[in-house]
Design a protein that fits this description.
By secondary structure, this protein is α/β, with parallel strands linked by helices. The chain folds into 2 domains: 107 residues, Aspartate Aminotransferase, domain 1 (Alpha-Beta Complex); 215 residues, Aspartate Aminotransferase, domain 2 (3-Layer(aba) Sandwich). The protein contains 14 helices and 12 strands. A 7-stranded mixed β-sheet has the order 2-8-7-6-5-3-4, with helices on both faces. Strands 9-10-12 form a 3-stranded antiparallel β-sheet. It has a two-stranded parallel sheet with strand order 1-11. It starts with 6 loop residues before the first helix and ends with a helix. Bound molecules: pyridoxal-5'-phosphate. Pyridoxal-5'-phosphate binds next to helix 5.
């Protein structure tokens, strides 16, 4: 049968998301880095009281209420913010706006798998620079590659490590293309690179409400950069990429920084306990500035992943080189983490 698709689409594998069982399924879900705590009560109240008139009309194409709340929460000008249907939407817009054959996309590996998927879709040149075993930052290689886009997830997934601000600053100063710093996990980290958007016109910081704000199902993310850099992206994005509900609920969540920070503190405390418990089992656990831990079990990772799945506990197993002997574990509540350790003691 002839293919209906472009040859690049035929050649793609496509992004394989983590398993998503329905809410209410009796399962401990530690595979896709959701926050174990509910969203801000203020955000839930907005959802419950929603006036249906918001649904009858088209939404604000720029989500200005959300931009205003974000501007106040992060102390950046409102027109330095672009809102997306999750940060995945913005990653897609960036790749479509900046990459094509002859204009390369560069990133250190292993990292967020979507970067590769998007580049394959766009048929742009792709330069993947391997991290060393202990995740030293490959500065010279990243500079030498001179990408039209350079993606750096900081903190990174699946390793959990953060890149020092001084390294990101140096990299930004040496690149002529756009440096995208994906801060999906910044709410659990020690520092942010946000200051760099003031220093460099080629830096774009990417944030999401999916992890820190417990709103992965809402689909809301945003970019922060100087207006000149955002202007090209605004041309590309779908006009109504953020729906009315996401704008209203997300605005309330953004206004409740205290609640988000309290939950992040709880996650960070649990992360410490869980890392200790796993090390006590003889596992290697990488230091993490995120809401997950990269671990190397003392025996076969895939078997442990499958055995835990049988007991109703989902972890993330990546069947790819360098990661197929490891498991990525989202930090749950203390109770969920205790049940994980108990199940591991049975399984091992
Ligand atoms: C979760 C994640 C995202 C995607 O966030 P959404 O806003 O849910 O699309 C982006 N980058 C990294 C590194 C992530 O882990």
């Amino acid at each position: 049968m002839p293919s209906y698709f472009r040859s690049s689409v035929d050649a793609m594998t496509g992004y394989i998301p983590g398993e998503q069982p329905k809410p209410g399924t009796p399962i401990i879900k530690l595979n896709t880095n959701e926050n174990p705590y509910p969203p801000s009560p203020n955000a839930i109240a907005v959802l419950r009281q929603l006036d249906p008139e918001w649904l009858r009309r088209y939404p604000d194409p720029y989500a200005n209420d959300f931009r205003q709340a974000t501007s106040e929460a992060l102390n950046i000008p409102k027109d330095w913010i672009m809102v997306g249907n999750g940060s995945d939407d913005i990653l897609n817009v960036i790749v479509r706006a900046c990459a094509e054959p002859g204009r390369s996309v560069v990133y250190p590996m292993p990292t967020y798998v979507l970067y590769r998927t998007l580049v394959e879709m766009q048929v742009a040149d792709r330069v993947e620079i391997p991290y060393s075993e202990n995740y030293e930052f490959p500065m010279d290689e990243l500079i030498a590659a001179q990408g039209a886009i350079t993606f750096v997830a900081s903190p990174n997934s699946p390793s959990g490590h953060a890149i020092a601000l001084s390294n990101l600053r140096h990299l930004a100063s040496k690149l002529s293309g756009v440096l995208v710093i994906d801060e999906a996990y910044v709410d659990f980290a020690e520092e942010t690179a946000l200051a760099l958007v003031h220093e460099f016109e080629n830096v774009l910081i990417l944030r999401t409400l999916s992890k820190g704000y417990s709103l992965a199902g809402l689909r809301l993310g945003f970019a922060i950069a100087q207006p000149q850099l955002l202007s090209g992206l605004f041309k590309i994005k779908d006009s109504y990429n953020i729906d009315a509900i996401a704008t209203l609920v997300g605005t309330a969540a953004m206004q409740d920084q205290d609640y988000k920070n309290e939950c992040a503190e709880k996650v960070k405390r649990s992360r410490k306990t869980l890392a200790l418990d796993l090390r006590q089992l003889g596992w290697k656990v990488w230091d993490s500035q995120t809401n997950f831990l990269l671990t190397q079990p003392s025996s076969n990772a895939e078997k442990i992943y499958l055995a835990l799945k049988e007991c109703g506990i989902l972890l993330r197993y990546f069947k790819q080189s360098r990661l197929d002997d490891k498991l990525r574990i989202t930090v749950g509540t203390d109770e969920q983490n205790r049940r994980l350790i108990k199940a591991l003691n049975n399984v091992l």
